[in-house]
Design a protein that fits this description.
- This protein is of the alpha/beta class.
- It contains twelve helices and five strands.
- Strands 2-1-3-4-5 form a five-stranded parallel sheet, sandwiched between helices.
- Helix 4 links the parallel strand 4 and strand 5.
Length: 221
């Protein structure tokens, strides 16, 4: 029986996704999370999760950084990105960073059912209306290189990188991860080497390159 993790901070939208998932697969275990921190915690606790429906702009998830984190720390878990952003260039970037599918929030429930079935069958899925435009959107060489560098980090190294990007000092990171400070220093040396950077500031910039604007917030503003 497959296990699905629905990651979105809106309870009504999670309920809609849960209902559509139940229609897509007769027998499916469903978990929920309302922040990226909750997603990571759920994946650490439940090693049987097959698929994550990931809201691109949920709390703690800065654009594609959450996708990169999941792909780095849990490479066996498939991810369908769910977003109000249907820009073909953004979709292309999500695919390049390891998304198995991309579902605009404007899509219908039948599209969601198709997406879940396809990705669980190890197929890539895009909504029909976006396939041609995404196919025309060229992958960025820089994005591809960035994805490869991030994928080279171990799960613990990626956690350290995200905490560095949040501005935490080595001792604070060590306390957060319950390890010794010298372990953090060793991780940072490896991170700098694998990312091709020289210091914490440059490493933080790497993650900031994955940030995206949220169309929903632009409309609200």
């Amino acid at each position: 029986m497959p296990t699905l993790l629905i990651a979105d901070d809106h309870p009504l939208f999670r309920a809609a996704l849960r209902g559509a998932a139940a229609d897509a697969v007769a027998r499916m275990s469903v978990l929920e999370a309302e922040s990226l921190e909750g997603v990571i915690a759920a994946l650490e606790t439940h090693d049987d999760v097959d698929l994550v429906l990931l809201d691109l702009h949920m709390p703690g998830n800065h654009g594609l950084a959450g996708l990169a984190a999941i792909r780095a720390q849990f490479p066996a878990v498939a991810v369908i990105v769910v977003s109000a952003n249907d820009d073909p260039r953004v979709v292309r970037r999500a695919l390049d960073h390891g998304a198995a599918g991309y579902l605009p929030k404007s899509a219908g429930l039948e599209d969601l059912r198709d997406a879940i079935r396809s990705v669980l069958a190890c197929e890539q899925w895009l909504p029909p209306a976006l396939r041609a435009s995404v196919a025309r959107a060229q992958s960025s060489r820089h994005d591809a290189e960035l994805a490869a560098r991030l994928a080279s980090l171990s799960p613990q190294q990626f956690r350290v990188l995200t905490l560095v990007a949040e501005g935490l000092l080595n001792k604070q990171i060590a306390d957060r991860l319950d390890v010794q400070e010298r372990t953090i220093k060793a991780h940072l040396s490896a991170i700098f080497d694998r990312l091709g950077v020289r210091n914490r500031t440059q490493a933080s910039v790497i993650l900031r390159e994955l940030e995206l604007s949220d169309p929903a917030r632009q409309i609200e503003a």
